[in-house]
Amino acid sequence: MANILNFNIRGDYNGKLVALEQNKDIPFEIKRVYYIWDTAKEVVRGRHAHRKLEQIIICMRGSCDFILDDGHSKETVHLDNPAQGLYIKNNIWREFTNFSEDCVIMVLASEHYSENDYIRSYDEFLREIVR
Ligand code: T46
Asked: Is the pTM of this model over 0.90?
């Protein structure tokens, strides 16, 4: 279920650089970028799925854990590498937690923000994925 993309690092003695191009390194057109930081370790974010949205999650600094659930099984992914992206397709329930103090997450999204795309009830999520 967890799909980790390994990005090319174009680094030299000056430091490291990753370049991401839509429809090449990122498997969709990027319509939105947002980032999350300053979240306490024990906070649990997410607790929803998306009907259509696909996203790539990149932990730019620090670390955190994503718990993914496709309605059949659950998987935990530890993110701590800015040269990796966690590709989450639609209809996956996600929770994320265990934030390090310095954690900064950047998200590349395939759609503009729409509250209608969110499934915020786990029971509703299970009903929708068996339809
Ligand atoms: C996801 C995980 C990884 C906006 O106004 N625009 C936006 O683009 C986003 C993402 C959020 N918001 C508002 C909606 C809420 O009032 O920001 C507030 C916090 O959003 P939310 O509670 O949905 O944040 P997370 O961290 O639980 O989830 C977010 C994304 O919403 C979600 O798509 O997969 O990050």
From this structure: yes
Residues shown for the chain: 131
In order, the DSSP letters of 63-91 are -EEEEEE-SS-EEEEEE--TTEEEEE-SS
Q: Whose CA is nearest to atom 32 of ligand 1?
A: 46
Catalytic center residues: 48
pLDDT value, residue 2? 86
Geometric angle at alpha carbon 61, from 107 and 97, rounded to 5°: 70
Asked if residue 109 has pLDDT above 80, the reply is yes
Q: What is the mean pLDDT of the chain?
A: 96
Q: Give the residues surrounding ligand 1 with Cβ less than 6 Å away.
A: 32, 34, 36, 45-46, 55, 57, 94, 107, 113
Q: Rounded to the nearest 5°, which phi and psi values hold at 125? A: -55, -50
Instruction: Label residue 46 by pLDDT band (50, 70, 90).
Output: very high
